Every structure is written in structure tokens, then in C-alpha cells.
Amino acid sequence: MPSYTAPTKDMQFILHDVLKVSQTDTPGYAELEPDFTGAVLEEAGKIASEVLAPLNAVGDTEGCTLENGVVRTPTGFKEAFDQVRDGGWTALDLPEEYGGQNMPYIIYTAVGEISSAANQAFTMYQGLTHGAASAILAHGSEDQKSTYLPKMASCEWTGTMNLTEPHCGTDLGLMRTKAEPQADGSFKISGQKIFISSGEHDMADNIIHLVLAKIPGGPEGIKGVSLFIVPKFIVKEDGTLGERNGVSCGKLEEKMGIHGNSTCVMNYDEATGYLLGEEHKGMRAMFTMMNEARIGVGMQGVAQADVAYQNALAYAKDRLQGRDVTGAKNPDGPADPLIVHPDIRRALLDQKSFVEGARAFLLWGSQMIDQSHRGKDAAAEGIVSLLTPIIKGFLTDEGFDMTIRAQQVYGGHGYIEEWGMSQFARDARIAMIYEGANGVQALDLVGRKLPQDGGKHVMAFFEMVKAFLKDNEGNEALKADFLDPLKAASKDLQQAAMFFMQNGMKNPNAALAGSYDFMHLFGHVCLGLMWAQMAKAAHEGIEAGEGDTRFYQSKIKTGRYYMKRRLPATAMHLARIESGAEPVMELEDELF
Amino acid sequence: MPSYTAPTKDMQFILHDVLKVSQTDTPGYAELEPDFTGAVLEEAGKIASEVLAPLNAVGDTEGCTLENGVVRTPTGFKEAFDQVRDGGWTALDLPEEYGGQNMPYIIYTAVGEISSAANQAFTMYQGLTHGAASAILAHGSEDQKSTYLPKMASCEWTGTMNLTEPHCGTDLGLMRTKAEPQADGSFKISGQKIFISSGEHDMADNIIHLVLAKIPGGPEGIKGVSLFIVPKFIVKEDGTLGERNGVSCGKLEEKMGIHGNSTCVMNYDEATGYLLGEEHKGMRAMFTMMNEARIGVGMQGVAQADVAYQNALAYAKDRLQGRDVTGAKNPDGPADPLIVHPDIRRALLDQKSFVEGARAFLLWGSQMIDQSHRGKDAAAEGIVSLLTPIIKGFLTDEGFDMTIRAQQVYGGHGYIEEWGMSQFARDARIAMIYEGANGVQALDLVGRKLPQDGGKHVMAFFEMVKAFLKDNEGNEALKADFLDPLKAASKDLQQAAMFFMQNGMKNPNAALAGSYDFMHLFGHVCLGLMWAQMAKAAHEGIEAGEGDTRFYQSKIKTGRYYMKRRLPATAMHLARIESGAEPVMELEDELF
């Protein structure tokens, strides 16, 4: 049976030693003193380990069931959901006026990682609610906000996002769900949506569906899509629940993983819906939710990799098998623990260096989001927009690979369900797919974000790397191990961007054929930058003679591993990118 | 519902255009004329598509059940097993005197890929039987051979291999199963074995377990292990079945995949066993089976990748989503098929170029096995010994990654069980683990095979590459696209081997820390060599003006993709290897 311990020490290191959050001028950050964030994270970790993690396997084994239109969640989910709700954990960062705690998004991200690692399927009920609430907060009328947000902030009501239909996922312009205007200003929504996470369940009094649909007579394709609020139960004027709306769950999908979350086919049959935001501007409103969801999914990739790593590490220290070739390390035992073997250490260090680097990347990205939203910083907004597809695509690809590596450490036991490693891999797999499959993230990055505003955001990123390198150029402790490899990797990235600029104009396929490699190349540079910053902070910590020196040393050594063993991937991605469109495009469709 | 079509055309191309099997002097190969192999492969393909593939999802959904010691296989398995048995498919390559057809191993491999792709869990019942029969053939007495082989050749009786115990997998020296000698020359076997594939089921009259156990008083550790034949029912003097032996299935494991195969905990309680081979030489005998099994597992990796690719390709051509950025390809339809998008083509070409290159590698390796066994060619035996861990480790790692890429092409539908892509991924996952986890393959390659006989085998491999490059140095059609990249990749491999030689003596960890990368680097060079040979054959085919020119062109273009997009990985692996032991070893265990 796997276990989970929240990485509070590592998060505190990133928040305070690396990002120095309470010393920045991002609004709301002054309160993020170490004692405060430590208390929040410790408490979140306690619930995660004691309440959520023990339900993870239960959710996987039991799954959800649908009977007469009623979806039942696995044993214990409802009680745990109540407990999390009662603890005030579901709306840390929403405004106080709607019942939230107005904390910065960076804290929401850290707590979200902890909760997701303990139980991804469970956490999704809250995560989707949060996303829907954010969309209402950004685009709703005052009336809509006061009607829905307080109940959603408390998760008394949960939320969903309804985009996909059987014949369209990425290409939402093909959508068929209709919204007929009514005399009272509402709409009648009819159509079928699929893959609706948390679409129906028994843990909340009401479910607020955000539904994309077309108003007849509007523009063709994606420009004719609007967003609607469709509550499961109509909310009456006095805020109490009225009649059941014309929306129901037609089917639960049998999935590879996240069995504890109900993935529903949702049927809308003249359901009453209320326009959210402007007519035909539904995609803009939905993107508020999508961008947040994409960061959240990137976080899931890291979370599953971390819990899988924690268990693989414990197994590697516990399981006795074979001998250290340089001499027995456990001479009195029948064999040495797995961790003595270099290839096991390679697998563990791949995981550890990814998880810690990715966590820093996520928290730094979240700081940028706070800087953008709370600080109204357009430059930060640009960087977030650029990095979002990398956070989603790179962190979930790598996150999944790392759960596979963790599973591998268990040998045959990794394949047996009762050991729990299979679930981590199966649950992590979805993160590469939903909220825009990773190929779509790569397309978004190269086709949209890179050229945005004349390449302004990517130039700003390069400037940040350059500034970091310059600021530390005299730092001999960092130079060979961190600064030089970061410089080389960043050069590969610039060269790839240059290749796209020079060739993508003539032939867009020259850029698109390399988009996936570019996303990974960029991701490695981001993690390289994070490790260089963490190593710097660790050296400073050692010099200051305060804190846990051993911990700082582990950071430096783990970082060195990343720079030496993982970062060389950038050259390979560059070589692939520079091979251009031809290898990818020259084979005729019928010759595949 | 996924489907499967046997790649007979591709196999024929490899057998006859590339390897030119019927023109070689390997004993038995003269009969392998195109008409003959074509007929065998077509027929195997028919059974695979019509009988085995439709049972694949059934096996996954139903799984096996254990009740009162009786294991039931999924609906339809027994009938299909009878059909395959009646068709004479289970012992293509065993000697005629024992009921086999005495075909070369290369045909067994080709047919095995077809069968595995259609239904891996099902095919394992036969595959394990074949492995056990091979061990009896190589190490059994005349009496043992005549008692067991005819019934195993026909799969009236099936076989298993029993190595793992709860506390020991890789490190078999820790084994506790005991074999007490009896007055009549037999042994009483007692102990527990786990992860026994096909350990108990309802498709055969008898099950012949090959069991590793220790005879009390023998040498410590791995040197005191002997191999025993333990039949489920004792075979009487007249060949009929006698009493039930003291062996039973105590539990079926719940696994991530291959649900149609029964993975058993086997309890031996003073079961009667017969020594196979010599006392305390059990590992040697078991390795006859293991090496064959490792080739077979590599083949499973390719097989799952192929069936997943076939379905991803069909989906990519069928599913309409988005538009070709260079202009609509399906202007009259609502959208273009997925295959117009460069990143979808990238994913498909990764799969196609792997599958076809790996298939050539497997068949070439099988030819070497025939050359070694039938031709008594020691050099070929050396090459096989060197390549076995690469075939097992590299092809299953890549094979799994390719099923994941294929699943990804389906977007959200890839995650839903009813589409079948999840099963391919879950089934493919085991191949990286069983028959020696891939890390153990890397250790075997670098720790044992590379230095074997003073590095003789790897030198022979380099000579083969060199000879190929030299033989074709004037071939302008191959030079830039195939020979130059192969040369560069091979140079990376040589440099890595040199690094190990120079550093591994002083510090074995300097080599072991790079073992996994070396296995992948070596694998890429092997596939690069295969693609260069296939491109050569394709060019010759085009020049000869015979055969399917379009097919030959597809080979050249797919090969170019591999050389340009996949082979650059060798430089990354070399860089990781050359970073040596320090990044992997410097972090103290307690700082992980």
C-alpha cells in the first residue's frame, strides 16, 4: 500500500530561499512569511496523508457507478469531501467577498499539488469547481457572481466545464450543441457533451455546468460559440434550489485511470442556461478556465511523479536484491538494498531532479500569475501565456515518464495492482490528454505564443535567462556545473526559435513539424533555469550557515544531476527541429 | 473496437529483399522461398485477425478467475487454443521427431509477432510452453524428451517457468524453494513461486512446470540452484496421466494488463520433481529458456507497437479535426483528417519507423540464432548473446513508448477502455519488466556481454557496421541520408564503449551509471543499420523495376525519418554516459 508525505520542506525552500516570496512586491505576498506558509502546507499535508491518500486505491478499485441517473462516488469520498470543505480548503485564493480566503494563487498551486498527489481523482471535483468559479468571477454579472460564487467557493456546489462533443474535441468550431434564446433572457440548451469530469455525483447539493453552445443564426465555426451557466438545479431568487434542470448523465466512461472521478456523457435536453459573458465570445470566457486548468494539469503531472517517486524510493531502500559491485553495503544481510545499484539511482535521480525542478517551475509560474493578476503586470502576463503550454505539455509528458520509471523500480511488483504503482501511472496518463492533448499544447506554443506580439514574450524569457547568467557570472561555484550548461541549453533554444522564424514564414510546416520537440527543449531550459536558481539559493544557504546544510547539499547534487544527465536532451531536440518539415511531410498519406 | 492486419508484406520484404534468406547458407533456409513464407505468414495472419484479435478485449475485460484451485480463462480462449493447436501452429520450429515442423527460428519469430500483436495474453500460453520445451530439448534426458516434448509441441500440455519468489526476483541466489532428493531419484519440491505466467488454466490436459530450487547441502547462493520438471499431473510409464502432483495455484494476481493470461502464485508442497540437466547447474539450463524468452519479449514490444500504430493510423485518417495550415485537404468536409497535421505525422512516423526498423532487427537477430544453432556458428552465437539484452530492453522500452504515442493520437478516446488503445499500452508495459527488468538487461549488456571474451562480440558488431559502410561507400543514393548518419551514430557507440573501457576498470560504477543509456544508444545504432540495409534493398528494388515501387519509396522515406529524427538520440546518450559515475553516485542515500 503506497503512502504519501507532502514535500513541505521542499516547497518552503522554493518559496522562501529561491523565490523569496515575502520580500517581493507582488500584492498579497508580504503576508507569505515562512511560518504562515509552513502552517498552511503542513495542515494540507496532514489531510492529504491521513484522509485523501488512503482513499486513492479505494477510488481506483470501486470507481463510480451510475444507476437511474444517479452517480455514486466511491466509499468514503463524500465524507472526505465534507471534511475538506469544512476545513475551508476549497477556495483558498477566491475573493473574501465570495467566501474565499483571498490567498495568492501560488499557495493554491502548492496546496493543489499536495492534494493531487494524494488523490488525483478526488481533487478533480474541487479543481473543476475552482476553474468554473474563476470563469464566473472573470466574466459573470454581479448577479451571477453573488448567486453562484459563495456556494462554489465552499464546494457546496461543484462545477464542470463542457466543451467536447462526440465528433469534436480540439476543433470546437464543429460543435452542435444549440442554445435557443428565450423571452426571459435565458436560453434552452440542447445537445450532448462527452468526457465531462465530475459531471454528476453525490457529493454536492448542486452542480454548475459551464457549457459551450451555439446560438442559432450566429457566426459559423468557433466564432459562433457562447458560454452558458447551466445549473443541475435551478437556483431560485432567494438562493434556494428549485426544480431539476434538463441535464442528466447518460453514461459513465470506463477509463484507464482516475476511476474515482466520474467522467460523464452529459445530455442537455432544453436545459435552462444563462449566458456567461458576451454572445459568441464563449471561447474567450472558456479560456479563462482552460488556462487555469492547464496549469492545474501540469501540476497533476508533477504530483503523480512525486508520489510515485516517494514510494519507489522507499522500496529501493527497503528491498534487498543483489550486491553493490564495489563492495557489500549491507554485509550482514542477505543482499544490499536496491538503491546501491547505479541504474536504480539513475532512475531515482531522473525522478527526483524532475519533480523538484518542475515544482520550482510551477511555483515560479504561479508567482507570475499572481504578478499578472494581482500586480496587473503585462510582462508577467505575457510570460505566463508563453509558459502555459510548456507547463501543461512538458510537465505531464515528463510526469508520466517518471511514474513509469518509479513503477519500474518495483520490478514485477510494479505491475501488480495491489502495490499501487500501476494506479499512479494510469492516473498520470490522462494529464497528457485532457485540457488540450499535448500535441495541441505544442501547436499553441509554436503557432501562437512564440510569434505573439512579434515574439515579445519569448524575447523577454531569453532576457531573463541572460540577466540571470550575467548577474552570476562571477560565481565560480555555479559556473561549470550550472551556468555553462544553462547557457548552452538556452543557446539551443534560441537557435530553434531562429530556425522557426527563418523557415516558418515560407513553410509553416517547418515550424509545426518541430513543435513537439520545441516544447520539450523549452521545458528543459526552464527546468535548467530553475535548478541554477535553486543551486544558487542552496550555496547562499550554506554560506549563511543557517538552515539545513545537508538539505542544501542535496539540492546542489540533484541539480548537478539534472544539468549533466537531463539537459543534454536540448541538443537532440534541436537536431530534430533543424531537420525541418521534409522528413515529417514527404511520406504520402497512402504510404503510411 | 481495434483491428489488426498482419504485416506480411513488410515481413516478406525483410526476409527476401533485405535478408535474402533463401540465398543464404544457413541450414534450412533454402526452403524459405517467398511463396512458402508468404503462405505461412498469410495463414498466420488470418488466424490472428479472425480468431485471436477479437478475443483480445474479451481477455482484458473478463480476465482469469480462480475458484477452488481451478483457473478459468476468458470466454473463447479454450476454443481458440484448440483451433491454433489443431492448425499445428504451436511448434513450428521444434524437431520433427517430437511433432514439430522443424522450421527455422526466424519463421517462429515472424509468426510469433503476428500472434502477439493480435493477442499478447493468449499467445503467452503457447510462448511459455515453447520456452519450456526448448529447455527440455537442450538439457533433458532422452527419456524426458520423449515423455514431454511431443505433448508440449502440440500444446496438449503447456509449460511454465518458475523463478521468482516473494523476496527474490533478479537475485535468485536468495531462493528458498527446496528440492529434497528421494530414493527413486526424484525430488520433493517445496516452496512458493510468484508471477508464474500461465501457471494454472483450463486449456491443457497437463502443465509442465520448470522450477528452480535448491538441493539441501549444495553450494550457497546462485551456484546451488537446480532446475526441475514438475508436472501438474504425474506422467505414468505408459505416457498417460496419473495422480495430481503437489502443486497448486494459491492466488491470481490483479495486474495492470495482460488480464487474459493467468499470473499465478504457485505453491509447491512436496511436489514430485525430476532434475533437468545437472545438479546445481540450474541457472545454465534456465538461461536456455530465458534467452529465448527475452527475444520473445522484445518481439512483444514490437508487436504491441505495431497493432497500436495500425489503429492510430486508421483513426488519424478517419477523424476529421482542424484544417491543414497550408490549405484545406478535405474542403468539402467539415474539417481535414488528423493526418494532415505535422505533429500527428510526427507521432505516426515515430511509430512506423520504429516498428519496421525493430521488425528487421528482430528477424535479423533470429537469423543469427538460426546461424548459431543450426549452423553451429560461434561468431553468430556471440552476436546473439550481445544483442539479446538490446532486443529485450530497447525494443520493449521503445515499444511501450510507441503504444503511448498511438494512444495519444486518439485524444480523449485513447483513455477510454472501449476504444482499445489503453489495453495496448497496459499490455505493452509488462514487457519492460518481465524476463529481467530492463535495467537488468542494461547491466547484462554492459557488465557481462560487452567485456565478454575481451570485447570480441562488440568488436565483431563494429566490424559488421564498418563492412556495410565500406561495401556501400560509392552508393550516392545512400550516402547523405543513411551512411553518414549511421557512421556518426556508430562512432558515438564506439566512443561510449571506449569510455567504459577506460573508466570502468578503475570504477565499475562509471560504466554501470551509463548502462541504460548505452543500451538505448546501441539499440538506435542497430535500427539505424537496419534502416540503411532496408533503404539499400529498396533502392535496388526500384532500380530492378520489379515489385511495388511505391512500397520501396515508402521504405526510403520512412528510413530517412528514422535517420534524421530518431538517430540524433545517440549523441544525447553519449553525453549522459560521459558524465560518468559522479552525478549518479554522489548523492548520499539519506539525502534522496
Describe this protein's structure.
The structure is a homodimer of 592-residue chains. The first copy, chain A, has 592 residues and is α+β, with helices and mostly antiparallel strands. Among the domains of chain A are: 8-139, Acyl-CoA dehydrogenase/oxidase, N-terminal domain (Butyryl-Coa Dehydrogenase, subunit A, domain 1), CATH 1.10.540; 156-280, Butyryl-CoA Dehydrogenase, subunit A, domain 2 (Beta Barrel), CATH 2.40.110; 450-583. Chain A has helices at residues 8-18, 34-52, 56-62, 77-86, 105-118, 120-139, 142-153, 282-318, 342-373, 378-409, 421-431, 438-449, 452-471, 476-504, 508-512, 515-544, 549-566, 569-578, 582-585, and strands at 65-67, 70-72, 157-162, 178-181, 187-197, 206-214, 225-231, 233-235, 241-244, 247-252, 263-276. In chain A, strands 3, 4, 5, 6, 7, 10 and 11 form a 7-stranded mixed beta sheet that branches. In chain A, helix 5 (105-118) runs antiparallel to helix 6 and helix 8 packs antiparallel against helix 11. The longest helix of chain A is centred in the middle third of the chain and has 37 residues, at 282-318. The relative contact order of chain A is 0.09. The model of chain A has no long low-confidence stretch (mean pLDDT 96). Chains A and B meet through helix 9, helix 10, helix 11, helix 12 and helix 15 of A and helix 9, helix 10, helix 11, helix 12 and helix 15 of B.
